[in-house]
Structure formats: structure tokens, C-alpha cells
Amino acid sequence: MGRWIGPTRLAGLRSTLADLVLPTPCAGCGGDSVVPICPDCLAGLGIPRLVPPQPVHPAGLPPVRCLAEWEGIARNLVLAHKERGRTELAPVLGRALAPAVAPAGPGPLLLVPVPSRPGVRRSRGHDPVGRTAIAAAAALRAQGRTAHALPLLRHARTVRDQAGLSSTQRARNLAGALVARRGASAAMPGAAVVLIDDVLTTGATLSEAARALREAGIPVLGGAVVAAVLKRA
After folding, report:
1. What gap in Å lies between CA 46 and CA 96, rounded to an integer?
2. Do residues 196 and 111 make contact, with C-beta atoms less than 8 angstroms apart?
3. What are phi and psi of 189, to 5 degrees?
């Protein structure tokens, strides 16, 4: 005899099947799509490229690669993942970001996500940058690379919301805010360390993250972000 399925469970199964079959809005353009990001929007992220130096970038900022400028599709994707709970975007963004992470050479890679403020992470209910870093590491391993994502950084003190702050104010707000977790220096010795974030604005956050790791004896090779704010000529 077949196993009886109650009405509540049956409704859940129907909902799951509908999610698999029915179109959902593409997080990039809003059009109907059977995948989180439609092929056109995914292609719009582009090939990873080195972010050129900007006047607002701090001196301690490591080399950073991005997929796109902070506008249009890239901005929509990041905000959907980060602010609107589209957690299904993490694997797609991670796979897209993986080429921006891998440096020249076949050595092991350690991806370190930049931590969100604890209160912000609780309010969102998830850690978008951490999820993206894990997905990027998984994509690199699928390509035969030795790669792992580890949360080696934590906040040492309270910081203000960065929105609306100038580059100088952001740098002051974050100065000394991050520290390496205990035992961080023993994680994957010999691995090339790459910082992961979703957006590069003034560079203050990635610069502070790099400083915290360097003070713990962990050299930082560079950073990788989905999008970057670039000054137009």
C-alpha cells in the first residue's frame, strides 16, 4: 500500500513543485525566469576585471577584481540577495565570482568573507557575503582547485551604518573595527588569501579587513566583489 500523505504535507509538495516549474522574477531584470538569474542578466555581469584606483580608495586597499559596476543588473542582484532574502542567488553569484578569486598559479585558495555587523546579519536572517564566499569556493573546487571559505574576521566594536558617509568618514568609522579570530593564522598555511565582499564603494571595508588579517600575520593577495563603484571621467 502507498503511504498516506496528509493535506498539509500535500500542500507543501504542491508549493515546491510550483516553485520548480512556474516562472519567478529574475533578480536582475524582473522578467519571468525558471532560474534565479536569467541568462542575459548573468552574461551582463561580465568578465572579472581589476578595479582601477579611485581617488577615494585608501592606501591599504589590496588589488580588487569585480564583475561589474555598481548599477543596473549588478546592483539589482546584490540588493535582491542581501536585502530581499533571495538566498537562492548565492550559488549563482558564487560561481560567477569564482574567476575573480583565482590568482595565477595552482596553489590553494582561502576565501575570507567580510563580516556584516552582527545586528544587520540578525535582521536579514542570513549572511549573504558568507554564502557567496562558500559558493565561490565550491565552484573553484569543482574546477579542481583547493579552495575553502572561512570566516576569519569578526567585529571588535560597534560601527555606524556606512550609508551616507563620505570616504573619510567611512575610514574613520571602520578604523580598528575588525580583528582576526583566534587561531586564524593557522588556517590553511601557505594558501593565497582573497577577501570576499559584495560591493566595493570607497574601499574602506576591504582595507580594514586586509589590515586586520595582516596584523594577525596573514598576508592578503587581493579581494573580489560582485560590483564596484567607479568614478566616471
Report:
1. 9
2. yes
3. -60, 135
CA–CA separation, 190 and 181 (whole Å): 18
Q: What local confidence, expressed as pLDDT, does residue 102 receive?
A: 81
- Quickly state the pLDDT bin for 225 (edges 50, 70, 90): very high
Question: CB-based burial of residue 167 (10 Å sphere; 0-12 exposed, 13-18 middle, 19+ buried)?
Answer: middle
* Sign of the C-alpha dihedral computed for residues 73, 159, 171 and 129 taken in this order: negative
User: What is d(CA 181, CA 185) in angstroms, rounded to the nearest whole number?
Assistant: 9
How large is the greatest C-alpha to C-alpha distance in the chain, in angstroms? Answer: 72
Q: State pLDDT tens for residues 11-54.
A: 444 444 445 555 689 999 999 988 899 999 999 898 999 999 99
Question: Are the C-beta atoms of 193 and 184 separated by less than 8 Å?
Answer: no
Q: Answer whether residue 99 shows pLDDT above 90.
A: yes
State the CATH architecture for 46-228. Answer: 3-Layer(aba) Sandwich (3.40)
- Domain borders along the chain are 46-228
